[in-house]
Amino acid sequence: FDWCGGTPLVFRESTTKRVQSTQDGVAQAVFMWWDLVMDMEGQVTLSCAPHWAHASSPQNMPWRDHWMQAIYYFPREVSVARGEELTLAAYHDEYSLWFNLHKDISSYDPNMESPICTCYLHVSCSRTRIGSINNSARNQKYLEALREHMTPDSVCLCLGDGNLLGIAASNMGASKVYCVERNSLTFRIMQEFVECNRLQDKVMVVSSVDHLDNDILNKVTVVFGEPHFFAALLPWQNIHFWYLKDKLSPMLPNNVVLMPRGATLWAMPVEFEHLWKIRAPLHLVEGFSMTHFDKLIEVSVSRN
């Protein structure tokens, strides 16, 4: 991409590159990074390359606090054999990149559309959250705990955002499940899950606990959650589950089952070699005085 105006920027294009597999296996994704040339002579380059691909030695690599490599998944996994010739296709528009891998060049489509999320799950969920949803060992523990308390007479209240445990409880035989989805996107997703599984008579999705009257809450036998909330930027903020439970406690039966029943916070000291630099004064950068910025940093540090 030439940002100096020497050549016009193309807002949408594609290109191909022939590559060779070094091992038998399944190709799933592209691992990529970028180099940014900062001057006309090409003497100053910013790069987010990993240490093993960096132009300078690992010891002399500049520290980066937010520029990282990226992973882009292919639309489909591709089985490959060692030594096999393949075609890697790369695409971009004004906003994003995407990739595909072909065994036969004839299957390459120069106009392949970008993989935009239309199900809203990938829009509403972080990559970490999608990873946890697909963690089978983690899911199995939740399901085992639920099975201990599910009967044909169970009335369940599920608290959290993007929580599939309510659907699972219904499939285990609960007579009624109320899912509280305060996030508008996950509310829509959960409704689609309910409709797809034909559970409209057994699962009700509401946007707030205030939509559940006392007659409903008095019949609840099990209250559960992962817990997970999209507003929780830090892990311990998911303890908001406990505050929701306390808000509802006066309206719930005394013998209601609560899951989880407690939480343990773990902490450990961690040493970061370069983290102090995010608050360090810059002084001079390429001959420019950064005095005003340094004062701003000092004020921020003093407030914390």
UniProtKB/TrEMBL annotation:
<dbReference type="InterPro" id="IPR029063">
    <property type="entry name" value="SAM-dependent_MTases_sf"/>
</dbReference>
<dbReference type="InterPro" id="IPR025799">
    <property type="entry name" value="Arg_MeTrfase"/>
</dbReference>
<keyword id="KW-0949">S-adenosyl-L-methionine</keyword>
<keyword id="KW-0808">Transferase</keyword>
<dbReference type="InterPro" id="IPR055135">
    <property type="entry name" value="PRMT_dom"/>
</dbReference>
<protein>
    <recommendedName>
        <fullName>Protein arginine N-methyltransferase domain-containing protein</fullName>
    </recommendedName>
</protein>
<dbReference type="Pfam" id="PF22528">
    <property type="entry name" value="PRMT_C"/>
</dbReference>
<feature type="domain" description="Protein arginine N-methyltransferase">
    <location>
        <begin position="18"/>
        <end position="100"/>
    </location>
</feature>
<keyword id="KW-0489">Methyltransferase</keyword>
